[in-house]
Amino acid sequence: MSLVASLLDRVSPQSLQQLRASDRAWQALRLENPLIPTVINQSQESLGDTDFDLVIAGGTLGIFIGAALQTRGWRVALLERGILRGREQEWNISRLELSSFLELDLLTEAELNQAIATEYNPARVGFYQGYELWVRDILNIGVNPVYLLETLKTKFLEAGGKLLENSGFSGGIIHPDGVMVKTGEMTLKTRLLIDAMGHFSAIAKQARKGEKPDGVCLVVGSCGQGFPSNETG
């Protein structure tokens, strides 16, 4: 075991296991011929009355869309294969992008300020075999996902949204007037299905038909304590 792995194993064994699982997944994506899943099928029959206007598969990203639409009167169901909660890892965003939460009435000014964990300028962007670029006011704010997701989750549920935790997406059948969505032994009838499950989504794999991605955007972060200020990223 390398020194880095040995130290990480002592500090956070679960994180080491997750990193190794990610490495295996990326190696398989690069080097192996992937199995192409068939999770989406089609039917020419009418679906009839629907239970929801929108079903979103993938809670971590889907809660943003779900909360915005549910608070505007849409009937939304959100599928999450685990428990919907944020990780102890800041998300980077710009001030202009953050203002969308205020415009959509998803957060108050006070809640928005509480969600901001760090703010810095400038930030460095590097390009493979290229150059370094220092930018200002771009992805220079670190948001606390734990607080942000918990706040939006609460507002989503209070507005009448249906959250199905420990309920991963199993498959779907597209009808002329809607989609039949399966999660475990349960089926949901919806007007629209949104895939918010990320890069390793089975729907995305089916759509790519085995084609490998053209590139990868790697985000590098670190954990540290004891700095009086954080002026660059």
Topology of this protein?
Layout: H1 3-11, H2 13-31, E1 40-42, E2 52-57, H3 59-70, E3 76-79, E4 91-93, H4 95-103, H5 109-115, E5 116-119, E6 123-126, E7 132-135, E8 141-143, H6 145-158, E9 162-164, E10 171-175, E11 178-183, E12 186-195, H7 202-208
Parallel strand pairs: 1-10, 2-3, 2-12, 3-9
Antiparallel strand pairs: 4-8, 5-8, 6-7, 10-11, 11-12
Helix pairs in contact: 1-2, 3-6, 5-6
Write up this protein:
This protein is α/β, with parallel strands linked by helices and 233 residues long. 33% of the residues lie in helices and 24% in strands. The protein has helices at residues 3-11, 13-31, 59-70, 95-103, 109-115, 145-158, 202-208; strands at residues 40-42, 52-57, 76-79, 91-93, 116-119, 123-126, 132-135, 141-143, 162-164, 171-175, 178-183, 186-195. Helix 1 crosses helix 2 (13-31), helix 3 packs across helix 6 (145-158) and helix 5 runs antiparallel to helix 6 (145-158).
